[in-house]
Design goal:
171 residues, alpha+beta, Peptide Deformylase, 7 strands, binds cobalt (II) ion
Length: 171
Amino acid sequence: MIREIVIYPDRRLKEISKPVEHFDESLHALLDDMYETMIAKNGVGLAAVQVGVHLRALIINIPFDKELEDSQPKENTLEVINPTLLEISGETDFQEGCLSVPGVFEDIVRAQYVKVEYQDRFGEKHLIDDDDFLAIALQHEMDHLDGKVFVEKLSYIKRKKFEKEWKKLHP
Ligand code: CO
């Protein structure tokens, strides 16, 4: 089921999400719905808070070929529950977007490399590390779990410009 996406600056995006304790049917339904919603909106990542559920759960599915349709099959979806950052290093910038801030793309500075421990939908623990786009996506989505949206990382001047333009488009 496609769920409604919470759009910036909705207060719900600022809430800190709680750890997932029950790896049950309702979590699985949430993750399945998040996938359908993300695909419907042409996203590559989505945190539960973006569909109004304050649980530490996020999904990422990076298209293997942007030119191809169906390049984000469900089985390629990384489902990340209760993530913790174990290692972080380097610095890079990358143009990011967010389904909660549709139409806005900005260069954001983040760590180049991250190592993350997380649980899957059955509660099994895993480790993942990356120094490419997945590292950026993990940091972007993990920020959502702590109530942060990527535009908050813009410089003061760029943030002011964004807020002014956003208010014009979304009065
Ligand atoms: Co986002």
